[in-house]
Amino acid sequence: MFYVELVSEVFDASVLAAKLPGTWCVEATNFPMWLDGTRHNPEFSYETAEGDELTFADTVSYTTRDGDQKTIVGTDRLRGDEFVWRGQGWLKVLTSRWQVVGADDAFDTIVLRFSRSRLTPAGIDVLTRKGVEVPVVRTTVAHATDQFGLTAEDFASLTWLS
Predict the structure, then answer these.
(1) pLDDT tens-digit profile of 113-151?
(2) Which burial class, exposed, middle or buried, applies to 104 when counting CB atoms under 10 A from its CB (0-12, 13-18, 19+)?
(3) Which H or E run contains 141?
(4) Domain ranges of the chain
(5) Dihedral angle at the C-alpha atoms of 9, 156, 59, 38, nearest 10 degrees?
(6) pLDDT category, 11, cuts 50, 70, 90?
(7) Is 89 strand, coil or helix?
(8) Considering the domain 7-160 in this protein, what is its CATH number?
(9) Which of 16, 42, 121, 125 has a CA-to-CA distance to 34 between 20 and 30 Å?
């Protein structure tokens, strides 16, 4: 039987510090950046950074239509039950807010919800841990939308990339 962690445990900083680091592949999204046809194979990498509060060094990588590898680098700081992302380099002026709203029991499939920012709409990504075979992700999430922090409308808005 498949069991999904309760959302309240997912928000716990110690759980996030232990389980979020690593590289994640975007399996489904409603985020225009991943759906406009110019960026492919998006991956998020989180590495714990030193500090008094939970902070991750964050690298988003993707392949362009021409096959070039691109990255976006930032820092995520936990503020309450959400992370505040700030870009690095010329992106330092940009911020966004996101949170982990659900995960499976192994923390190999997670759902991120992004708040609207100055440049992007609100959005949802379903991620799986890179290198871990996660069978039937779509079916698993569809049958446990509440535990993954999704409404039926949220689930219907997703485009599955794989």
Answers:
(1) 999 988 889 999 999 999 998 889 999 999 999 999 999
(2) buried
(3) helix 137-142
(4) 7-160
(5) 180
(6) low
(7) helix
(8) 2.40.128.20
(9) 16
